[in-house]
Amino acid sequence: MKILVIGSGGREHALVWSFDRSEQVNTIFCANGNAGISEIAECIDVSPVDVDGLVKFAVENEIDLTFVGGETSLALGIVDKFESKGLKVIGLSQKATQLESSKAFAKDFMARHKIPTAKYRVVESTQEAVETLNSGHFGDENSPVVVKADGLAAGKGVVVAANRKEALDAINSMVIGELIDADAAKKIVLEECLVGKEVSLIMFADGKNFALMPPTRDHKRIGEGDTGANTGGMGTITDTGFLTKSETNKIINEIIKPTLKGCEDEGFPFKGILFLGLMMTEDGAKVLEYNVRFGDPETQAILVNLETDLVDICEAIHNQNLDNTLIEWKEGSSACVILAAENYPKSPRKGDVIEGLDEANKHENVVIFHAGTSKDDEGNIITSGGRVLAVTAIASNLSNALHRAYKAVNEIKWEGMQYRRDIGR
Ligand code: AMP
Ligand code: GLY
Question: Which of 44, 177, 320, 341 could disulfide-link 348, Cβ–Cβ 3.0 to 4.6 Å?
Fold first, then answer.
């Protein structure tokens, strides 16, 4: 088979790595990849947002299966375009992608289908936001409230405000385009602040059936002890112990089944990857967000555990027979530590030579996925983005997985490299 993976980060490296392990796969292309991906796939110079260019490439090169990594391509309707040309593609339709690309759409969807989530109000102007907050809908001026830009904002569109003043400041900076692209803040979702432990549950879905992956936990802040700016994610751990059997069953019945049925009833079957961001509150699990794709760096920590051929799973999603497909995972846990460039997440420093990769790669049960890397003229691997490497390890338990990952991290260095030493703790 010829495979095309769309995207260029650590998530896409993990996808390419998984496809590379399949005996059914001959050639993998990646649009547009990075230095790590280029060692196992042919990187093509077509942007993940150039939908027409990607369709043309897939047709001309007779691609058998395309996997779309990120939400930006999905929101552009890439899956609908591929399907209209008869191309086999894994990812959500543009309509279903609204569950991620519009937080207001997602909240209204959850309300229609009685899916547990935080109480909310959608506002369309600063004036309306002020009125809603002053009406006491989310408590008094000292109550926390969560402010979310409606549109895609690469993880930067959510502010958990400690009080009303902080909430208004966040709304103002979103609306004037200071925090994020102002277009994403044309509508704003105000939400009750939930308390509990967060867990992410990602699954394969074929429109009717689903297959859960191991639950994961992300570390979104740049600083140790969960301080500082939000990032795309500084590390992830997987462990089946994050959810008990009865919690999982409740999530299936109260959240997953109603979500899949709701999508089907509303005419946009959910075929692809469903990512639930959950808060485990005293009243049970509530949905913080839907994503319609694999997470980054969740994917890296998840796919190192996958025993089943990813091509077979993609075929099952395509043929809508996930219910008849056995998907096997390694027992135990995994950990992924992100190594980032200096000044990430603001404007990361680029172009530094990365040392120690070969030594780190020799560690057993460790896989180093590349995110923001490229090669210089002399063939050195250099930094070229904010999140640079995802050092991922598996072991029989979480503490060993973390130990392995950090031992490999110790081999790697470049000028300005930063990472959190408290992943998993
Ligand atoms: P989201 O992109 O919607 O998942 O939000 C990003 C982060 O903001 C989440 O991972 C939570 O840590 C936090 N968050 C979002 N919504 C809420 C909420 N209603 N209550 C408390 N924290 C929240
Ligand atoms: N790591 C969070 C995400 O991919 O959305």
Answer: 341
